[in-house]
Amino acid sequence: MIDIDTETAVISRQVYLDVCALNRPFDDQSQMRIRLETDAVLLILSHVRAQTIRMVVSPVHLKEVSANPDLSRREHMLALLQMFGAAVTLDLLQVRRHTEALLQYGIGVADAARVAFAELSGSDFITVDDRLLRQLQHADVRVWCGAPTAYCDKEDLR
């Protein structure tokens, strides 16, 4: 977590929203769970826009979003990341080492890279991937990891 104290704003929370969470508003909203997660993602993004939460963006985000074949969704996501995301510079060798350590827990390469970047940037990790969240319960991760709805509850977002 970072603390930036200025006269105009105080940012005390930092999040890494993975791309599947960022894409939740584009998913079929006929299921209650998806609607709730969509509302939670939009609430988190409203706090990002208000600059009460900092959204960290990694090279993994950009690579994943750029590979989306849906032009409209790809452009929307790239604009969102560019306008509201905060690029954080990390030692890529350290990120790679941490990714490799997470692989030992059965986490896939891409997921391990996302989590490593979140952890090394000191960001809470938010995903809608239940399988990944179960795997992270057994991994040695030192940041909070959970679903968008759980994050909103944890931070008492309104």
Structure description:
By secondary structure, this protein is α/β, with parallel strands linked by helices. The chain has one domain: Rossmann fold (3-Layer(aba) Sandwich). 54% of the residues lie in helices and 14% in strands. The protein contains eight helices and seven strands; from the N terminus they run E-E-E-H-H-E-H-H-E-H-H-E-H-E-H. The chain has helices spanning 19-22, 32-49, 59-66, 71-84, 92-103, 109-120, 130-138, 148-155; strands at residues 4-5, 10-11, 13-17, 53-57, 85-87, 124-126, 145-146. The protein has a five-stranded parallel beta sheet, with helices on both faces. Strands 1-2 form a two-stranded antiparallel sheet. Strand 1 and strand 2 form a beta hairpin. Helix 5 packs across helix 6 (109-120). The chain is globular. Mean pLDDT is 92; it is low at 1-9.
Can you give the mean pLDDT? Answer: 92
Structural class: alpha/beta
Give the name of the CATH architecture: 3-Layer(aba) Sandwich
State the CATH class. Alpha Beta
The CA-CA distance between the termini, in Å, is: 20 Å
- Beta content comes to 5-15%
CATH superfamily name?
A: 5'-nuclease
Q: What's the structural domain tally?
A: 1
Which fold name corresponds to the CATH topology? Rossmann fold
| Oligomer state of the chains in this structure | single chain
| Number of H/I helices | 8
Biggest sheet record: 5 strands, parallel
Strand order within the widest sheet? Answer: 5-4-3-6-7
Provide the gyration radius in Å.
15 Å
Query: What string gives the helices and strands in order?
Result: EEEHHEHHEHHEHEH
- Give the overall form: globular
Low-confidence segments, given as residue ranges, are 1-9
State the helicity in percent bands: 40-55%
Number of strands: 7
